[in-house]
Write a structure and sequence with these properties.
It contains 11 helices and 8 strands. It is of the alpha/beta class and 284 residues long. It has an 8-stranded mixed β-sheet with strand order 3-2-1-4-5-6-7-8, sandwiched between helices. Strand 5, helix 5 and strand 6 form a beta-alpha-beta unit.
């Protein structure tokens, strides 16, 4: 039986967390967003308010509906303020240590029945859950970038997830207007298991076929029906995020195609991370 979700916490309000919080308030759910500083929280709030205003301007949303959605978001820097949430979705840095620390804290502060979900894209949900003494309430809810626009959410069953937590997360994904799919906790789950090596292949092709970035993107858009080219997509996801996810998959699967191409690693090390730094394969 899926539990009822009246209040949601979102921890980490970066690109993914703010997108997830936007979805929650648009779906009519009281949402508490937690960031490490009030400034970062405010930045996420402004970003959400901006995208909802754009929807009003484009006639996709009524102004009072937009205002009510924005008013459903409260901000905090204190994890303890998530105590009465029915579901908490974590979207902090993609590193096991900080995630485990957070889940152990969430277990202490949240009510016993609350479902604890991670938006990790390439780490093991089971390993994150192992930092708690109630791993049955931990699941994966993996959204895609940009979360408000991409229809998919992967609902990930870790080794010890309960049916109740899993189905609660699935039902909540539907309530957000997403297309949820059920899967098990394997490296990269479904989409990244396929997409990460594919994007790495695309970067290798840049050198092998001596094709330009623009032509490679045009090739995959016009020849394979991709909505955006692989280099545009890497710039959107963030080269640091992609390299990190590649490394996590390479560590688990030891397949050469999972390893980040040296060209990408060099770009990431140089701070050419894509849209968020204004320069990646393209300038923004
Ligand atoms: N959050 C909220 N709203 C946003 C947004 C965001 N991040 N980005 C854009 N919008 C809103 C804007 O208001 C925008 O309208 P305006 O520009 O008029 O303000 C509106 O959405 C429409 O945006 P676009 O015109 O850019 O939309 P589009 O039709 O060109 O589609 C797209 C954009 C959905 C991103 C499409 O190009 C696409 O599907 N690209 C592929 C993306 C993809 O593959 N994502 C998966 C990445 S992999 C991943 O996420 C996994 C992982 O773990 C790393």
């Amino acid at each position: 039986m899926a539990g009822e979700i009246r209040k949601v916490g979102v921890v980490g309000l970066g690109a993914m967390g703010s997108g997830i919080a936007q979805l929650c308030v648009e779906a009519g759910v009281e949402t508490v967003g937690r960031e490490v500083t009030a400034e970062l929280g405010q930045k996420a709030h402004d970003r959400i308010a901006h995208f909802l205003t754009r929807k009003v301007e484009k006639g996709l949303l009524e102004r009072p509906t937009r205002d009510a959605a924005v008013a459903r978001l409260t901000l905090t820097t204190d994890v303890a303020e998530l105590a009465d949430c029915d579901l908490v979705i974590e979207a902090i840095v993609e590193e096991l240590g900080p995630k485990q620390e957070l889940f152990s804290e969430l277990e202490r502060v949240c009510r016993p029945g609350a479902v604890l979900a991670t938006n990790t894209s390439a780490l093991s949900v089971t390993e994150i859950a192992s930092a708690t003494s109630t791993p049955e309430r931990v699941v994966g809810m993996h959204f895609f970038n940009p979360a408000p626009l991409m229809p998919l959410v992967e609902i990930v069953r870790a080794e010890l997830s309960s049916d109740a937590a899993f189905e609660t997360a699935y039902a909540f994904g539907e309530r957000l207007g997403k297309h949820p799919i059920r899967c098990h906790d394997t490296p990269g789950f479904v989409v990244n298991r396929v997409l990460i090596p594919l994007l790495n292949d695309c970067v290798h092709v840049l050198d092998e076929a001596r094709v330009t970035v623009e032509d490679l993107d045009a090739g995959m858009r016009h020849g394979a029906g991709w909505p955006m080219g692989p280099c545009e997509l890497l710039d959107l996801v963030g080269l640091d995020v992609h390299v990190h996810a590649s490394e996590a998959l390479w560590e688990k699967l030891r397949e050469p195609r999972m390893a980040a191409p040296p060209r990408l690693v060099a770009m990431a090390n140089a701070g050419l991370l894509g849209r968020k730094t204004g320069q990646g394969f393209y300038s923004y």
